[in-house]
Structures are given as structure tokens and as C-alpha cells.
Design a protein that fits this description.
alpha/beta, Hypothetical Protein, Haloacid Dehalogenase-like Hydrolase, Chain: A, domain 2, six-stranded mixed beta sheet, three-stranded antiparallel beta sheet, 12 strands, globular
Length: 250
């Protein structure tokens, strides 16, 4: 049994969680753009080019938004005037600052002119849904070879075209000799839908949106009800029961 994490988190943050869970494995991070067990020797990496990063930032600066460029070793963000819970969530969700330093700059596009930056992933939080939708349409029209997925009601994540948690699982499975149909995947948001649909057993958390639950083969309990642990116990119990009930060959 091979257990890993497929996450939108940066690599250092995911590595810290894996260590707490006593998982020594290859991690799928940055929504599939960086797959590695060691930050110095990635098994797979795919980046948004420095030119595209700069163009994305320039486009988004026309809106009231907080931008976070997520390199595998550090993050760079723009300073915002609003004191919002959305920004607080982004700031708190970056992982341990000791392992993942974050720098803020007043004018992000000016900084990138002097120091170009290529990254696996960009997070953007808006302060209203209208601007989020307008920015989405503009970016999809102006910037080629990127994918944009929703991360929150007023936020989205940008990655290289064709890169996702599902593609990350496919790549890791090929590397380990494990097919998608032999995998179990658990997710709780819309960016998990492709992964849930493609594996042998796709599981949605009980707190997941309806679209995620509809895509899943099975819905477990919510986060507050320890849904992952419950799912693991139930899956193993069912497997053991099936093995016991199978007739012995003579």
C-alpha cells in the first residue's frame, strides 16, 4: 500500500505534513506541477514561464486582489490595503515560515521586471466575485497555456496547462507501476473532481460541495467527523471481508 498527498500546497508545507503523518513518499504538490520526495531532486516539474507570470500579474493588478507567487522554495506576494479574512487565510495557509519564507512587495509587476520569476503555481484572492469572474475571463483570453481552477468562492489557482492532481497521480502511478484503477483518492473541493473520477475508488468528503460528491463513488464523513480515517477503516474492512468470502481453490 503506497500512501501519498496530492495537494495544492507548496512542497515544503506538504513535506512537513507528510513528516507529521510519518509518510516517507513522493509527494504531488503545487496541484501536480511539482512531484518529488526531495526538493533538490524533483521527479517531475512544470512551471509557468517568467514572461507569463509577469503578464498574469500585470493583468490582475487592475483588480483589487491579493496575488501569491508560489515557488517551491519561497513565496512572493503583493501588499494589499484591505485587512480581510481572505488574506489572513492565505497568509496562515502557507505553512511554517521557517521552511517557506514569504516576501511582500508593494508593486509586484515592478519587482518582476527586475527579478523575473518562474513558478509552478499562482494563487489569487479577490474581494468580490464579480472581479474574480472578470479577471478569469480576461486571463483565459489573454494568456495561453495555463489552467485556472477555483480554490475558494473569491479565489482561484493558476498552473501550467494540463497539470492537475489527476495528471500528477497518473505520472506517479506510471513511475511506481500502479494503475489509476488500483488507486483510492479522497478530495473535498472542485479541483479534486478529475482525480476522483479517474481512480478506481473516488471518495468525496462529507463537507465537499455537491458537485464533488456527485462525481465520487463514495461519500465519507466530514472533516469534523474524521472522514478520512473512517474511509480507510471501511475500505480495508470491505477488502478483508471479500477476501474471506472468496471460495478457496483446490
Amino acid at each position: 500500500m503506497y500512501v501519498t498527498l496530492a495537494t495544492g500546497r507548496n512542497f515544503p508545507s506538504a513535506k512537513k505534513i507528510a513528516k507529521d503523518l510519518k509518510l516517507d513518499c513522493i509527494l504531488i504538490t503545487h496541484n501536480g506541477a511539482l512531484i518529488a520526495s526531495s526538493i533538490d531532486e524533483p521527479l517531475y516539474e512544470n512551471r509557468i514561464s517568467a514572461e507569463k507570470v509577469r503578464n498574469i500579474v500585470k493583468a490582475v493588478e487592475d483588480y483589487d486582489a491579493h496575488v501569491r507567487l508560489l515557488h517551491e522554495r519561497y513565496a512572493l506576494g503583493n501588499q494589499v490595503q484591505q485587512k480581510s479574512q481572505l488574506v489572513a487565510k492565505m497568509t496562515m495557509g502557507i505553512g511554517d515560515p521557517l521552511f517557506y519564507p514569504v516576501t511582500f512587495t508593494e508593486k509586484l509587476s515592478d519587482h518582476l521586471e527586475e527579478k523575473p520569476m518562474s513558478v509552478p503555481k499562482i494563487d489569487i484572492q479577490f474581494f468580490n466575485e464579480e472581479e474574480k469572474e472578470e479577471a478569469y475571463e480576461r486571463l483565459m483570453e489573454e494568456i495561453e497555456e495555463i489552467d485556472i481552477t477555483a480554490s475558494t468562492r473569491c479565489g482561484f489557482e493558476i498552473g501550467p496547462k494540463g497539470v492537475s492532481k489527476a495528471s500528477g497521480l497518473q505520472f506517479l502511478g506510471n513511475h511506481l507501476g500502479i494503475s489509476l484503477k488500483e488507486m483510492v483518492a479522497v478530495g473535498d473541493f472542485t479541483n479534486d473532481i478529475d482525480m476522483i473520477r479517474q481512480v478506481g475508488l473516488g471518495v468525496a468528503m462529507g463537507n465537499a460541495p455537491e458537485s464533488v460528491q456527485t462525481a465520487a463513488d463514495w461519500v465519507t464523513r466530514s472533516n469534523d467527523q474524521h472522514g478520512v480515517g473512517y474511509m480507510v477503516r471501511e475500505v480495508f474492512r470491505r477488502q478483508m471481508k471479500m477476501q474471506i468470502e472468496q471460495p478457496m481453490e483446490h
